[in-house]
Amino acid sequence: MFRGKPRQSDKLETAIRRALGEPAWLQGLRIKEDGAVTLIIEADPANMDEAETRRVEAEARAMNVKGVTSAQAMLTAERQPGQPSPAHSEAPPRSGSQRVRKGARLSDEAISQGQPGQPATGKVPGISRILVVASAKGGVGKSTVAVNLAAAFAKLGLRTGLLDADIYGPSAPTMLGTGDAQPASNEAGKLIPVKAHGIHSLSIGYLSDPDSPMIWRGPIVMSAITQMLNDAAWGTPEDPLDLLIIDTPPGTGDAQLTIAQRVPVTAAVLVTTPQEVALADVRRGAAMFAKTAVPVLGVIETMSWFEDPAGNRHYLMGEGGGQKTADALGLPLLGQLPILNEIREGGDIGQPAAIGDGVSAGLFHEIARAVALNLDSLQTKAPPKIIFED
Ligand SMILES: Nc1ncnc2c1ncn2[C@@H]1O[C@H](COP(=O)(O)OP(=O)(O)OP(=O)(O)O)[C@@H](O)[C@H]1O
């Protein structure tokens, strides 16, 4: 923004709005000091061609305005007719609970909170600790670990939440069997997390239509995450969530960095497969958290081996890589998970393996135990203490 020059910024905003024809679909406008402009454009998820045309044209028109050095438009889901967003509504909050429809748009408040570069401060009221489950690469089993860790903690009686922030492929709804869920809002207008298997969850998958995927870009991603984090009834100061697990998008790009910077994360765990290429990536992940001063508790290796019916282990993706990385980073290896059919199947049918009595439930319990012990040893964390009894 034009700090100290509000009039110049206002003038530019008016000029841009005029150049675009003062459209109702222009949901927000941000102007940086150097004249870089971000347009937040409302779009119909069912008509992405039109949305793309609107985006290209809006960027071109904004670029023609004197003083604009660059223009980038972001699309957000169209507001439902007659459904003002809480941030825009003048009406007092309705009593009882109300539905948030798929495609619900993000509040401007969330959008402004979602701007990168603002450091995380303090704690989220009603959440005792936040654990980020990250992987530097896609498809390594990160969501499986996040969901099953949440299930293992919930099984132990901890008030556990799961925030599925994986915008590229939100899998919590499938893995928890909550694909049809649409979170309601409470009287204060806060999203009520969906409860299944003892886990309170929110996912971008609940808010977007899987048949009409939205284009999620930079700040909008963070807006959605910020809204699910701050505008949700996870817990109260009197009855807080003991642990919120965040399943982050894979990679070490802007979205992940922004989460690490903007969310008051207690600690992170890194998920990897054993092969060398994934290990190089995981090192990048650790470096990213180091940069943002988020403690990394350790490495979890998945798909470590496959055991045939005769009991022979086959190291299909290499052997010992997780331990090697953990050693190189000076971190503990928190656990290894073999390739097990019950893990995949549990994810596919919405019954996390960790809630059952199989081999994998025991493994996830052990990893949860290692995570809890490491969380407790962090000086920064707050009570309650997580106690495991064998
Ligand atoms: N230990 C395991 N044994 C068997 N199957 C597994 C195991 N871990 C993960 N899978 C399966 O591998 C697939 C990918 O896992 P998952 O979705 O958890 O990966 P991810 O890293 O979160 O992927 P994405 O990058 O899409 O977010 C899923 O079908 C899952 O069920």
TrEMBL record:
Keyword annotations from UniProtKB, A to Z: ATP-binding, Hydrolase, Iron, Iron-sulfur, Metal-binding, Nucleotide-binding
Taxonomic superkingdom: Bacteria
GO biological process: iron-sulfur cluster assembly
Region (Disordered): 78-124
Gene3D superfamilies registered for this protein in UniProt: P-loop containing nucleotide triphosphate hydrolases
Residues the record lists as binding ATP: A136, K137, G138, G139, V140, G141, K142, S143
Record-level Gene Ontology MF annotations: 4 iron, 4 sulfur cluster binding; ATP binding; ATP hydrolysis activity; ATP-dependent FeS chaperone activity; metal ion binding
Tagged with keyword Metal-binding: yes
Function text: Binds and transfers iron-sulfur (Fe-S) clusters to target apoproteins. Can hydrolyze ATP.
HAMAP family: Mrp_NBP35
Record note on quaternary structure: Homodimer.
Family: Belongs to the Mrp/NBP35 ATP-binding proteins family.
Entry protein name: Iron-sulfur cluster carrier protein
